[in-house]
Amino acid sequence: MPGIAAAWAVGRPAGQVRSARSGPLALAVIGDCGVDDEQLHQALTTVRARDWNALTRWPGSYLTIACSGESLAVIGDLAGQHPVYWRPEPTGTWWSTSASALAALDGAPFDPTALAAHLALAQPDVLGGRSLFRAVSRVPTGQLLVLTPSGASTIRYEPVSYQPMSLSDAAPQVRAALSEAVDTRLDGTGAASADLAGLDSTTLACLAARRGPVTAVTFADSRLRDDDLVYAVRTAAAVPELTHHTVPGGDETVYYSGLDDLSSLPLTDAPNAYAVTAAIKRAVLATVAEHQAVGVHFTGAAGDAVLSAPSSYLADLLRDRQYRRALTHAHAHARLRHVSPGPYCGAPARPRAWASPTPGATPPPNCAALPASGCRRQSVPSPGRPCWPPPTG
User: According to the UniProt record, where is the region Disordered (predicted)?
Assistant: First the structure.
């Protein structure tokens, strides 16, 4: 059975593809992995024991390929930055981190049901083992793909649930994990830059500033009603290593700008919500490029998805008749964001997807590129809360 030697990487710097081998044992990591060559070679004993979970505990974001005899394990990451897809063929099994690449083998069409679920729920694990293409399977989060002469299968390596932990015990562990991840990303690089906006990006910017100067940027469009700039200025004043720059908004830095020319967007396996803010991100990165050489840029994108549950889980608590707990959590969400608990208490009773647009309503500022009719502000607009156009017809 072909092993690691039969796999290839496209568009990866040489430093992001490393491997170790000893007889029938082989191990490769692809991506930003905080393990040195000696540790990688020592981990071959872990491969022999087939302790797959231990191979995912290094800091960073990476894909792992491990070969022990005639068994090959392909392990993605829990955050979904390195997904794994596969499809069986009469002659064997193809696997890839790109579903569209596997679909292109024979022109497999997209799966309209899976696409509808993806667009409606925006949660990858809702699809389970399905991808957005027919005949292409997805390895669910927390599971790995195992290839043997008898075929392919997925097995779970990450627990479904964990023992509850107090905030005082968990906080140091989260701090250490974030610090290690940032240090791993900065190792061997020169200049560093970061968004300085919400809690997530600000945390990473401050952690990066421990290692040296950081060019920090804040998108400060007056049409956005948020307090990102206020907190960014205060943070930059408190952390001398942060050199702060603001990015003013303009006619082109609005949601959905440039989407009329789809050829200008990168090809992805699935619709990407961040495509609607591509023009804003280009303006931010252009400002970075004006003030420093090419280096590492940190953002807080998807931090909430990794470190917390979406507020929609409050609806699950209500459906389970856990009214007191739902109310307590709603107040906690509101207190964290310095807003009224009303939206968190009322939203689960009427999901946003079911809300009817108000005809003729004035759109919020961040919908400047959309038709005015039918756009209703559900809450204070922010870069993470775009306003979608109403259905037509």
Answer: 353-393
Concatenated DSSP letters of 35-68: --HHHHHHTHHHHHHT-GGGGG-SSEEEEEEEEE
Inter-residue contact 20 to 37 (CB < 8 Å): yes
Residue type, 166: S
SS3 86: strand
* Spatial distance between the Cα atoms of 197 and 229, rounded to a whole number of angstroms: 7
The DSSP output letter for 78 is: T
pLDDT value for 345 = 66
For 167-305, CATH number out of 3.90.350, 3.20.20, 3.40.50, 3.30.2020 equals 3.40.50
Residue among 375, 379, 367 at smallest CA distance from 311: 379
Report yes or no: 66 and 84 within 8 Å, Cβ to Cβ: no
Query: Shortest CA distance to 323 belongs to which of 314, 331, 335?
Result: 314
Instruction: Classify strands 60-68 and 137-138 as parallel, antiparallel or unpaired.
Output: unpaired
The two structure tokens encoding residue 226: 């948020």
* pLDDT at position 271: 85
Cα separation of 111 and 207, whole Å? 42
Location of each CATH 3.60.20.10 domain in the chain: 4-156
Short-list 10, 43, 11, CA closest to 25: 43
Closest CA to 146 of 227, 69, 245: 69
CB 114 within 8 A of CB 131: yes
Query: Are 64 and 45 within 8 A, CB to CB?
Result: no
Contact between residue 74 and residue 63 where contact means Cβ atoms under 8 Å apart: yes
Does residue 151 come out as left (phi exceeding 0), alpha (psi in the -120 to 50 range) or beta? Answer: left
Give the residue range(s) of CATH 3.40.50 domains in the chain: 167-305
Burial of 193-219, coded b for 16+ CB within 10 Å and e otherwise, reads: bbbbbbebbbbbbbbbbeeeebbbbbb
Q: Mean pLDDT per segment of 10 residues, for the chain of length 393 residues? A: 75 88 95 93 96 94 94 92 93 93 94 90 80 94 94 93 90 93 88 92 95 94 82 95 93 86 82 86 93 89 74 81 89 79 60 40 39 32 33 36
CATH 3.60.20.10 is held by the domain 4-156? yes
